[in-house]
């Protein structure tokens, strides 16, 4: 492989690229640090888009396909920006048994949202979380980092309607 | 923050000093437990690794020193050779808590004896099973016990670098661990010349990014090296050729947390807890339809009845127990007839299931087993890494069939098809995940065949609890 000699320019003059650059520098631009670098991108921008992947691939001297492969493999890395508010519905076993499957159905029917979707106005993102590790509180909903647990299905539907109407 | 290094000679004095401070500001047990999940100890519980959880502040290393922390590391470094550490753990009969129950000391021996330097030690904290958070609770309430266990393990296998792999879904765990590692460095309990000896051990934290399959050893190593988390061919095993093609030892969080206790109290003490061939304790997370769900730690040999009816207060609402599902989406379910079976790796294997990492899902009479089987298959299908064809396509087919059955469009042949796919997946899948993927479906079909037949043939749900569409139910009625 030809050693990269020219430093690739930042994709834009956004100051947040410096954070990404620092993260790569800390690991000495090692290809092994790809996941850490993508974490830095995700934390700084909220999502990992094509320009970010190209920048990282050039900077770490990795094929763009490798970077794309890793970024799409892991659930954490999002390809598009999230909505203003995020509703995570835990779909872990305990929450499933206690009725969160009905909440997923409800979101699909009432708002047309599948896990990973954002409403067209960019207000609300719906994420299906695998398990948030709070099974004692099942069923669990997380609205913008606020955990709500131990509600019945109807109470949860009521809460979701409140949140959505409150914000839009 | 004190910066003077701890050595073997001043460790005891420091522990004493911090113990007095600790006694003065002793707070209620619940204060430091994560979301109040850990209840006070039940009479039938045996707490070894969780004994200090909730009592000490996980953010302060002084609190861990106050309860005698790092004494085991000091003892191992000052009085024992690496070989005698391995021998002690071997005689204690410690088995890997990740699920398979492989003797830990043997694994260490393999890594120590395999050529190539440096060697690496990895702590597998990618606890991905839905409904299991034993490792999370341990890492968040007593992070230093795992760090100490890792340092001892590194000393035993001759590793100078260790990594703990944490799930990115647990940001608070990562934060706690990072603080703990930093504090251990400040006191000279990690780094060069630990406790004044010539043993050097550097430790880092590696973050995952949300992939269940990274709990598999090969995939875990790939992920640490910044690649897609896909399993590797075995052999060569990690102990021969692991991270960066060097010998690597991978242990579960809970396994490593047991190590300081074994070194400190001796192999005989540890072997006395639990059963023969299966010594010690195991943490479980009991969820589902029980009165008091939560995390427990019991000695091996405790029966499922004691766990469910005594420690967890029985079935919610006085209903009947239908099944117990052990080890999340990869494990089998057992009907209530197995309630009096003692919990151990061997007894579970005898009934064709694996003990796994420690999730116990209790299901009452209102649970639809077909819907549950479909749920687990949906999880496995979503988490299949896609490297090997059998797992990628097999789980998709099984999910399609189960979804069809749940929507009232099943046929009797579907059940044979499920069994057929379920039989070949374990034989041809690349890694343990694909091999175990059909287990929840197959075991549910084994014990609750009539329920599957009712769904597939008569298009009704006998417990009237599944999400089968109304029109299908009406057509059958």
Can you describe this structure?
The complex is a heterodimer of chains A (168) and B (477). Chain A is an alpha+beta fold. Chain A folds into two domains: 17-73; 85-167, 3-Layer(aba) Sandwich (Glutaredoxin), CATH 3.40.30.10. Chain A has helices at residues 16-26, 34-45, 50-59, 64-73, 93-111, 153-167, and strands spanning 85-90, 124-129, 141-143, 146-148. Chain A has a four-stranded mixed sheet, with helices on one face. In chain A, helix 1 packs antiparallel against helix 2 (34-45) and helix 3 (50-59) packs across helix 4. Chain B is α/β, with parallel strands linked by helices and 477 residues long. Chain B has helices spanning 8-24, 61-66, 71-79, 82-92, 104-113, 134-141, 143-157, 171-186, 217-224, 253-265, 267-271, 304-311, 345-350, 369-383, 389-406, 412-428, 432-436, 439-447, 449-458, 470-476, and strands at residues 120-125, 161-166, 202-207, 248-252, 274-275, 278-279, 281-288, 294-299, 321-326, 333-335, 359-364. The model of chain B has no long low-confidence stretch (mean pLDDT 88). Classes of the chains: A alpha+beta (168), B alpha/beta (477). The A-B interface holds A 30-36, 38-39, 66, 69-70, 73-77, 91-94, 96-97, 101-102, 105, 129-138 and B 35-37, 128-133, 136, 168-170, 207-212, 223-229, 285, 287-289, 293-294, 325, 328-329, 359, 361, 363, 367, 372, 375-376, 379, 385, 467.
Brief sketch in words of this structure:
The complex is a heterodimer of chains A (168) and B (477). With 168 residues, chain A is of the alpha+beta class. Chain A has helices spanning 16-26, 34-45, 50-59, 64-73, 93-111, 153-167; strands at 85-90, 124-129, 141-143, 146-148.
Radius of gyration of chain B: 23 Å
CATH topology of the largest domain in chain B: Rossmann fold
Average pLDDT over all residues of chain A? 85
Question: What's the CATH H-level superfamily name of the largest domain in chain B?
Answer: NADH-ubiquinone oxidoreductase 51kDa subunit
Low-confidence stretches of chain A: none
Q: Roughly how many Å apart are the termini of chain A?
A: 52 Å
**In total, how many domains does the architecture of chain A comprise?**
2
Overall mean pLDDT of chain B: 88
Rg of chain A, nearest Å: 19 Å
The CATH topology of the largest domain in chain A corresponds to: Glutaredoxin
Give the tally of structural domains of chain B: 3
Number of strands of chain A: 4
What would you call the shape of chain A? elongated
Give the largest interface pair and sizes: A-B, 36 and 45 residues
Oligomer: heterodimer
* Sequence of strands across the biggest β-sheet of chain B: 8-7-11-9-10
The first-to-last residue Cα distance of chain B is 73 Å
């Amino acid at each position: 492989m030809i050693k990269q000699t020219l430093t690739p320019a930042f994709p834009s003059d956004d100051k947040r690229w410096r954070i990404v650059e620092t993260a790569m520098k800390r690991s000495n631009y090692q290809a092994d640090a790809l996941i850490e670098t993508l974490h830095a991108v995700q934390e700084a921008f909220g999502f990992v888009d094509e320009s970010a992947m190209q920048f990282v691939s050039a900077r770490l001297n990795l094929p763009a396909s490798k970077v794309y492969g890793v970024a799409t493999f892991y659930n954490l890395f999002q390809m598009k920006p999230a909505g203003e508010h995020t509703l995570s519905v835990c779909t872990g076993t305990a929450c499933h048994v206690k009725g969160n499957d009905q909440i997923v159905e409800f979101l699909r029917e009432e708002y047309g949202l599948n896990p990973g979707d954002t409403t067209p106005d960019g207000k609300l993102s719906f994420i299906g979380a695998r398990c948030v590790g709070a099974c004692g509180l099942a069923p669990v909903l997380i609205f913008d980092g606020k955990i709500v647990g131990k509600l019945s299905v109807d109470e949860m539907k009521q809460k979701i309607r409140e949140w959505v109407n409150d914000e839009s | 923050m004190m910066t003077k290094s701890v050595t073997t000679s001043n460790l005891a004095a420091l522990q004493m000093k911090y113990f007095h401070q600790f006694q003065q500001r002793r707070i209620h047990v619940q204060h430091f437990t994560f979301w109040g999940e850990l209840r006070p100890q039940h009479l039938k519980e045996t707490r070894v690794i969780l004994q200090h959880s909730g009592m000490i502040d996980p953010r302060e290393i002084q609190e861990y020193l106050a309860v005698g922390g790092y004494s085991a590391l000091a003892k191992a470094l000052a009085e024992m050779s690496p070989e005698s550490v391995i021998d002690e753990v071997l005689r204690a009969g410690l088995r890997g808590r990740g699920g398979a129950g492989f003797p830990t000391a043997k694994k260490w021996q393999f890594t120590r004896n395999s050529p190539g330097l440096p060697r690496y030690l990895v702590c597998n904290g990618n606890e991905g099973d839905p409904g299991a958070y034993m490792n999370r609770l341990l890492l968040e309430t007593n992070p230093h016990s795992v760090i100490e266990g890792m340092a001892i393990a590194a000393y035993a296998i001759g590793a100078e670098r260790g990594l703990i792999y944490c799930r990115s879904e647990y940001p608070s765990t990562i934060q706690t661990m990072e603080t703990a590692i930093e504090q251990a460095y400040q006191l000279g309990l990690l780094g060069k010349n630990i406790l004044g000896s010539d043993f050097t051990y550097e430790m880092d934290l590696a973050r995952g990014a949300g992939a269940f399959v990274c709990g598999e050893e090969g995939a875990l190593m790939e992920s640490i090296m910044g690649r897609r988390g896909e399993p590797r061919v075995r052999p060569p095993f990690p102990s021969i050729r692991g991270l960066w093609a060097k010998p690597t030892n991978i242990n579960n969080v809970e396994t490593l947390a047991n190590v300081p206790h074994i070194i400190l109290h001796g192999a005989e003490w540890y072997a006395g807890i639990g059963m023969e061939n299966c010594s010690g304790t195991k943490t479980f997370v009991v969820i589902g339809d029980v009165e008091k769900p939560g995390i427990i730690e019991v000695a091996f040999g405790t029966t499922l009845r004691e766990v469910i009816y005594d420690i967890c207060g029985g079935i919610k609402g006085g209903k009947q127990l239908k099944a117990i599902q052990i080890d999340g989406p990869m494990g089998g379910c057992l009907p209530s007839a197995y309630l009096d079976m003692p919990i151990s790796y061997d007894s579970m294997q005898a009934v064709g299931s694996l003990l796994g990492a420690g999730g116990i899902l209790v299901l009452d009479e209102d649970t639809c087993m077909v819907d549950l089987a479909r749920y687990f298959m949906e999880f496995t299908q979503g988490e299949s890494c896609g490297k090997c064809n059998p797992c990628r396509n097999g789980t998709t087919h099984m999910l399609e069939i189960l979804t069809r059955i749940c929507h009232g469009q099943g046929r009797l042949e579907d059940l044979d098809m499920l069994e057929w796919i379920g039989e070949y997946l374990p034989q041809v899948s690349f890694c343990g995940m694909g091999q175990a993927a059909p287990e929840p479906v197959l075991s549910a079909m084994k014990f609750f065949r009539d329920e599957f037949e009712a769904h597939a043939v008569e298009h009704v749900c006998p417990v009237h609890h599944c999400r089968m569409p109304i029109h299908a139910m009406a057509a059958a009625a």
